[in-house]
Write a structure and sequence with these properties.
mainly alpha, rod-shaped, about 70 residues
Length: about 70
């Protein structure tokens, strides 16, 4: 019985010690989701600009070089 109580005490201590780490990981995961959303918006904007450049490239005297991404 003593071993079980000791293991339970160790478990509780480890949970308390790891709580700040878990909180930081939660914040990092949230920030990563926000970065992914921002990246999606930027990618959409870049693709829109590239399509526009392709359309107007032949209409002006200075052709815009084609981007190979």
């Amino acid at each position: 019985m003593v071993d079980l109580e000791l293991l339970k005490a160790i478990e509780e201590m480890m949970d308390r010690k790891l709580d700040p780490v878990n909180q930081r990981l939660d914040r990092v995961e949230q920030e990563l989701c926000e970065v992914k959303e921002g990246l999606s918006e930027v990618r959409t904007g870049v693709n829109t600009l590239l399509e526009w450049a392709d359309e107007v490239g032949g209409a002006i005297a200075f052709p815009i070089p084609k981007m190979n991404l």
